Amino acid sequence: SEKERWARLMETYFQREADAITTGVLIVDIRHKPTANDLVMHDWFRQTGCPEIVVANKLDKLKKSQVEPALELIRETLELTERDTLIPFSAEKGSGKDELLRLLVDACCG
Fold this sequence. Notes:
Layout: H1 2-17, E1 24-29, H2 36-48, E2 52-57, H3 64-78, E3 85-88, H4 97-109
Parallel strand pairs: 1-2, 2-3
């Protein structure tokens, strides 16, 4: 019931604020295939034409040899193109932080 309450709350928010959202950030777990909820949010960004930054979080939890296959799974699942932004990110180590901040500043301040 808590998930349903949150789903209704988010749906209402996104319906009301669709014009106010200039760039979306979709945070996915790099260790796993994007979830059904990730796909719903990604589809919303696509359908509304809202620019999207996909952040593949928890980069520090993978071995270097696991990173590219994990990113490829995210690209395939979300059907990302060359124009889409996918940032490998680690809050723990700071990887991807500067790129994400730059993109967010560019999105809000041009």
